[in-house]
């Protein structure tokens, strides 16, 4: 099966210019391997640049390790936040990379991932080596190693707990992989002493409900106020808890808490927004840390929870890349300047989001939250494994349970129209039958299958593509607020205006919605 798209690196001269100029805009997109030292660096590494004949360039950290290089101890290329470049593509390789990033190799193995993508293991391995420079196992191993190093540096977990939390099968495998990736034993990695402990000083690690306090890194600038406003505007009763927007002496008034579904049950993430510096104070910083506390069913759920939070907060976005792509349009230039760190938050669970979007059609945000809260309360699934991390939050909705009810029963339970109840039931039936709306889905197929459900139109399809499928180019051209912001009357006109914004029309939409969303949040949220 041929690849539908390729992901070639820029030519050698362009890569070398980026490295010679220490251009931080390329950090996380290209990696420099130095053959004379066996070290790989980010382009912005302050070390003296090697001669061209000693340089090799790669598209991923895993490819560097596969080629025999170790991470630089000075510039820490392993600490660079991820990239959304793979999210802009829909081919087999991009879908595989997204699923590996989400932990698929740890949960279903390479064979399971190949089955999901309808290719053989051999073909999957070949595709990834040709396009990324590393096999599925190498990509997964590097992902685990980088996560483990962050846990060592940011938390006070013991090394065996770190190995377990990062998804390693044994302490020996953990040690061998860390030496291969970083050229040092895990015990030699410096610890910063739990830099996020002040978020929740009573955060012990226990066998029943382990808690991990850490800072999740993202590229600066990061607009914490706008992200928090988005989460508040879309909070679902029983699944989210929004604190007051101002700090208080007793701790978490400015925090938000969210249920996050993981293999072992339901985790809870507490985000301390008051501890994130405002955008103006982030000037000159390459990254900013978002303080979170994760309360988990078990330590093995740490990696899935962290990845879900990264998607929810869009922590792998590159604001500079978005600004370069959109800033030339006079309609967007002022919006980008006003909110330089605006993100495109994703759904924590595709089933929940798709059903919530149908319930939210043609009603206000406040009314949508009420309906979504009823759905969460009435159809929360049984918590698997060792149970939820908190009795205050519901587990994800059970689509099979919803599909098992008649439209009349759903209408009475949710207090919605009969037509809306029919659509909810039809969508739940398709989801229970295997409709894939996750990050590794075939986006064209998912869009077509959603659009075929009676009661689901283009607006809903594009919202689901944007938040659940994670497509940064999703664009609900028919949205009324969007068209008002653009000053056009017809969806076709909105489509034409947005053509130059590809592949980041989703980010453009978020900027065009931002003022409305901020005003709606002030009006009808606590």
Automatic annotation (TrEMBL):
<protein>
    <recommendedName>
        <fullName>DNA-3-methyladenine glycosylase II</fullName>
        <ecNumber>3.2.2.21</ecNumber>
    </recommendedName>
</protein>
<feature type="domain" description="HTH araC/xylS-type">
    <location>
        <begin position="94"/>
        <end position="192"/>
    </location>
</feature>
<keyword id="KW-0010">Activator</keyword>
<dbReference type="InterPro" id="IPR037046">
    <property type="entry name" value="AlkA_N_sf"/>
</dbReference>
<keyword id="KW-0808">Transferase</keyword>
<dbReference type="InterPro" id="IPR010316">
    <property type="entry name" value="AlkA_N"/>
</dbReference>
<dbReference type="Pfam" id="PF12833">
    <property type="entry name" value="HTH_18"/>
</dbReference>
<keyword id="KW-0804">Transcription</keyword>
<dbReference type="InterPro" id="IPR011257">
    <property type="entry name" value="DNA_glycosylase"/>
</dbReference>
<dbReference type="InterPro" id="IPR035451">
    <property type="entry name" value="Ada-like_dom_sf"/>
</dbReference>
<dbReference type="GO" id="GO:0032993">
    <property type="term" value="C:protein-DNA complex"/>
</dbReference>
<dbReference type="GO" id="GO:0003700">
    <property type="term" value="F:DNA-binding transcription factor activity"/>
</dbReference>
<dbReference type="GO" id="GO:0008725">
    <property type="term" value="F:DNA-3-methyladenine glycosylase activity"/>
</dbReference>
<dbReference type="GO" id="GO:0032259">
    <property type="term" value="P:methylation"/>
</dbReference>
<dbReference type="InterPro" id="IPR009057">
    <property type="entry name" value="Homeodomain-like_sf"/>
</dbReference>
<dbReference type="GO" id="GO:0006285">
    <property type="term" value="P:base-excision repair, AP site formation"/>
</dbReference>
<dbReference type="InterPro" id="IPR003265">
    <property type="entry name" value="HhH-GPD_domain"/>
</dbReference>
<dbReference type="Pfam" id="PF06029">
    <property type="entry name" value="AlkA_N"/>
</dbReference>
<keyword id="KW-0805">Transcription regulation</keyword>
<dbReference type="GO" id="GO:0005737">
    <property type="term" value="C:cytoplasm"/>
</dbReference>
<dbReference type="GO" id="GO:0008168">
    <property type="term" value="F:methyltransferase activity"/>
</dbReference>
<dbReference type="GO" id="GO:0032131">
    <property type="term" value="F:alkylated DNA binding"/>
</dbReference>
<keyword id="KW-0489">Methyltransferase</keyword>
<dbReference type="InterPro" id="IPR018060">
    <property type="entry name" value="HTH_AraC"/>
</dbReference>
<dbReference type="GO" id="GO:0043916">
    <property type="term" value="F:DNA-7-methylguanine glycosylase activity"/>
</dbReference>
<dbReference type="InterPro" id="IPR051912">
    <property type="entry name" value="Alkylbase_DNA_Glycosylase/TA"/>
</dbReference>
<keyword id="KW-0234">DNA repair</keyword>
<dbReference type="InterPro" id="IPR023170">
    <property type="entry name" value="HhH_base_excis_C"/>
</dbReference>
<dbReference type="GO" id="GO:0043565">
    <property type="term" value="F:sequence-specific DNA binding"/>
</dbReference>
<keyword id="KW-0227">DNA damage</keyword>
<dbReference type="GO" id="GO:0008270">
    <property type="term" value="F:zinc ion binding"/>
</dbReference>
<dbReference type="InterPro" id="IPR004026">
    <property type="entry name" value="Ada_DNA_repair_Zn-bd"/>
</dbReference>
<dbReference type="GO" id="GO:0006307">
    <property type="term" value="P:DNA alkylation repair"/>
</dbReference>
<dbReference type="Pfam" id="PF02805">
    <property type="entry name" value="Ada_Zn_binding"/>
</dbReference>
